[in-house]
């Protein structure tokens, strides 16, 4: 289960800056989650490990809503882009 879904905003937390919108979430053959971020204003696509990205600062209410969405997603959910 991914902490991101398509359409989420994300930022790279270490190293170079990469503000982006998540455009794909998938599992590798080994079962590892990967997310594809499309860089804001440039359109550059980059595949990340989940741990490389974080949600931009959210207020407490938004964080609760996000967690509820994650918990409501079935674990056997397959991304719509596969």
Strand order of the largest sheet: 4-3-2-1-5
Q: Which class do the helix and strand fractions yield?
A: alpha+beta
| Total number of helices | 1
Order of helices and strands: EEEEEH
Return Rg in Å.
13 Å
Cα shape: globular
Can you tell me about this structure?
The chain has 82 residues and is α+β, with helices and mostly antiparallel strands. Helix content is 16%, strand content 32%. The protein is built from one helix and five strands; from the N terminus they run βββββα. A five-stranded antiparallel sheet has the order 4-3-2-1-5, with no helix packed on it. The longest helix is centred in the last third of the chain and has 13 residues. It starts with 8 loop residues before the first strand and ends in a 10-residue tail after the last helix. The model has no long low-confidence stretch (mean pLDDT 84).
């Amino acid at each position: 289960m991914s902490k991101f879904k398509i359409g989420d905003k994300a930022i790279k937390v270490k190293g170079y800056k990469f503000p982006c919108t998540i455009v794909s979430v998938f599992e590798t053959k080994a079962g590892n989650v990967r997310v594809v971020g499309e860089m804001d204003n440039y359109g550059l696509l980059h595949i990340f490990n989940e741990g490389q990205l974080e949600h931009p600062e959210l207020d407490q209410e938004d964080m609760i809503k996000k967690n509820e969405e994650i918990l409501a997603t079935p674990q056997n959910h397959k991304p719509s882009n596969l």
